Amino acid sequence: MAKVLIIGGGLGGLFCGAILAKEGLKVTVLEKNAAIGGGLQSFTRFGEVFDTGMHVVGGLQEGGNIRRLLGYLGIWDKVHIQAVPADCADLLYFAEDRHYYQIASGKEQFVASLAQEFPSERDNLVRYVDAMYRLVEEMDLFHLRSSTRDIFSHSEEFSMAADAFIAKYISDERLRSIVAYVNPLYGGRAGTTPAYIHATISVLHINGLCRFAGGSQLFAETLGDFIKEHGGEVLASHEVQHIHTEGRNITGVTTQDSKCFTADYYISDIHPCSLINLFDDPKALPKAYKTRLEDIPNTYSAFLIYLKLKPESFPYLSHTGYYMQSYEGIWNIAEANQPCPRGFLYMTPPEIQQGKYARKMIIAAPMNWQDVPPRGKEYANWKQERADLLLTRMEEMYPDFREYVDGINTASPLTIRDYYGTKHGAMFGYAKDCKNLVLSQVPVATKIPNLLLTGQCVNLHGFCGVPLTAINTCEAILGRNHIISKL
Ligand SMILES: Cc1cc2nc3c(=O)[nH]c(=O)nc-3n(C[C@H](O)[C@H](O)[C@H](O)COP(=O)(O)OP(=O)(O)OC[C@H]3O[C@@H](n4cnc5c(N)ncnc54)[C@H](O)[C@@H]3O)c2cc1C
Hints:
By secondary structure, the chain is α/β, with parallel strands linked by helices.
């Protein structure tokens, strides 16, 4: 039985572990933090469970790709989720003209919800939505189809800039900004982010979103238990600090407490820039490969506040709310030296038995890594000021919002960097660049034959993208289409 060692027990590492354990391989997952999960991890503060990096998730609707993957693993019935209602999946507020837009999910309903405000754009909206579905249709993996396509055989629109793609179909300037509102869920940049990224995230929204009820940590534990039930090990508090090589192969890894682990295959679920620093032999990986991994820009980071709300004071919101300062600012929502926050999203995470009132809220405001002061007194003040600004913005939408708040906890890009070990606290790993798609795409295979990559820096990010990449990673060991043919 081949042995596989996975560095990092985040979403990608756990999915790879679960798939390979089900296929009969001997899996060991090593996670640096005290709890497994990475972006799935939740923490408890003020007696409430808060999720760190998984607020809305796609691909779980009837027939959805991730639902099918969970069906193959046989764990769909163990997943605690709540579907976001279709009539108001997202609520947008633009401070510039104090206008709200209610966005529905479902193809026709999505168009209708926007055409209500922009009747003359109805036909454009239909063409725009169809164009996005066409782009997603080009992605075989998204549809769990065996692939023959490479990066060069896509349509021209696939790799045009997302903002240019939107402008090609939508005439009204304001509507162009409105349909780009999902930007905080992929870290988009004008002239850079490829249209297929925007289309994938938008299509996931239009197909219908879900939220984890009771915390996404439960899902991480379900995957961890699955690996153990299938003969594997999942070890938290095991930070890999050294990777040993001989010739062109990895021979083992050592953790912070000097424990050695060996395997036939090694899978890295950590940021590639962290991975390359773990090699004992600095020449184990070619210099050009390391430089390339270091030079790829990362997506923006975020400042987060976690609020405990006073009992029965604020209603439970089944949709995600988006605050945008201005229409024009949507593509530079995290840009440095701008009045901040330029935009953010807020949500009230559901309990397993959710009542009429919310017990907590999470607010996530995109921001750039270089705007964070170093840790110290200035940092503490800065965090407080920023949290205060966000509450002031909330009061533009919900007057007296501060009165509902019973406790505030904050997290900054430094928290995200240290917690996940991701470069510059990037929310979604590497940023894809439509001008250089080949260089910003990192393949699963590496220059070391028994080392494979997985996770959000490879391919797509998020709850849908990372498990799909895990299929690719596992098939690099099991054989092409081995898993796809079973889904
Ligand atoms: C604030 C925030 C909000 C987000 N919201 C959403 C959302 O609503 N919906 C969505 O789909 N996506 C969201 N995302 C993105 C999503 O969380 C990520 O795409 C996903 O979790 C990435 O999974 P991964 O396996 O690549 O990395 P991770 O989940 O980060 O896993 C990497 C793991 O490796 C561990 N590790 C690092 N170094 C070592 C080492 N040396 N040894 C052992 N272990 C190590 C880390 O501790 C971590 O557990 C959000 C991200 C952030 C930051």
